[in-house]
């Protein structure tokens, strides 16, 4: 179990997600990853979002803290610079069939109930806003 920091980025009625495609399954996740030693959850969320999406973000507030395979922190954030989709994290450099693919994309908020987004608790919050 590892604690994680993640961002929830909403722009023009769309949300930034990462499409994960593995053998026999496809699902979507919020940009983020493990909190490294000495990092705050916010710092991890900012770093991971840059690595995965290629954008710098400003944290607005904590949206939700979940206990799910460790503590996961989800922060509402805004893009302040960078080019969406230009991430260079290890997800893009160390690919394998088992690990699957990572594809940053914008998804209309109205489409969230039609796809598998993990964790579902965050989708439920977004749909109630």
UniProtKB/TrEMBL annotation:
Q: Nucleotide-binding among the record's keywords?
A: no
The upper taxonomy is:
Bacteria, Bacillati, Bacillota, Bacilli, Bacillales
Q: Which family does it belong to?
A: Belongs to the Nudix hydrolase family.
In terms of SUPFAM superfamilies, this protein maps to: Nudix
Which residue spans adopt a coiled-coil conformation according to this UniProt entry? none
Ranges for domain Nudix hydrolase: 1-129
* Pfam families in the cross-refs: NUDIX
This protein's name: NUDIX domain-containing protein
Which keywords does UniProt give here? Hydrolase, Magnesium
Kindly list the cofactors needed. Mg(2+)
Source species: Psychrobacillus vulpis
Question: What one GO molecular function would you report for this record?
Answer: hydrolase activity
């Amino acid at each position: 179990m590892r604690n994680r920091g993640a961002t929830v980025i909403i722009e023009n009625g769309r949300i930034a997600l990462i499409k994960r495609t593995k053998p026999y399954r496809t699902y979507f996740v919020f940009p983020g990853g493990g909190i490294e030693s000495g990092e705050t959850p916010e710092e991890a969320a900012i770093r991971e979002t840059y690595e995965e999406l290629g954008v710098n973000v400003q944290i607005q507030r904590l949206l939700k803290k979940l206990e799910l395979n460790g503590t996961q922190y989800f922060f509402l954030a805004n893009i302040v610079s960078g080019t969406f989709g230009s991430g260079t994290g290890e997800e893009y450099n160390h690919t394998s069939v088992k690990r699957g693919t990572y594809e940053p994309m914008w998804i209309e908020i109205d489409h969230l109930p039609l796809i598998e987004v993990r964790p579902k608790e965050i989708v439920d919050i977004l749909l109630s806003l």
